[in-house]
Amino acid sequence: MKPLLRLVALFICVTAVECQERNTLEERCIQQLQRGVKVPFYFGTSNLACVKNLGKGKRRRSVDTVSVTRLTHRYLYYCGSYYEFGTGYPPYRTLPYGWYRCNPETDSEPAGYSNAYPDCSKSCADKYVRQKPFSTLNNNCHHFANAMAKYLYRSDKECCKYRLPY
Predict the structure, then answer these.
(1) How many domains, the chain?
(2) Residue 85: CB partners within 8 Å, gap ≥ 6?
(3) Does 131 reside within a domain?
(4) Which domain, by its residues, includes 17?
(5) pLDDT in tens, 7-63
């Protein structure tokens, strides 16, 4: 029991440090925006099969294989937060869904630059999730990432007040 408690304590400590670092990133982002400097945002991907199977008790097979169609789970990174859709969790968090197992990769080149404040982009993500239910073909993580990128790129500091850029 003691080794399990130590492991849980270590996880909580690492998570707390990670969250503190992310808050610092968000604070730096806000400082840049207050100075009128646009902040980059990035696309990223995770293995779709891995993300889809998280929490379902699936066991790892003896040999890894890759999909010939290379299906991926898409997210967008901005100001210390990862924006994702279709994972059954809130649309933004400080780490990408499945970070501990699914090897998410954030692109090295920015997808664009924005002057949107983090609270506005989070509000926009919440609004998208409320207005557009998930659909595997018609409204998935790729649609969400593109809509968020359009919002961030065209941000007029209105916090998605009127209509989302679908």
Answers:
(1) 1
(2) 91, 128, 129, 134, 140, 141, 143, 144, 145
(3) yes
(4) 2-54+69-154
(5) 444 344 444 434 445 568 899 999 999 999 999 999 999 888 888 777 555 444 433
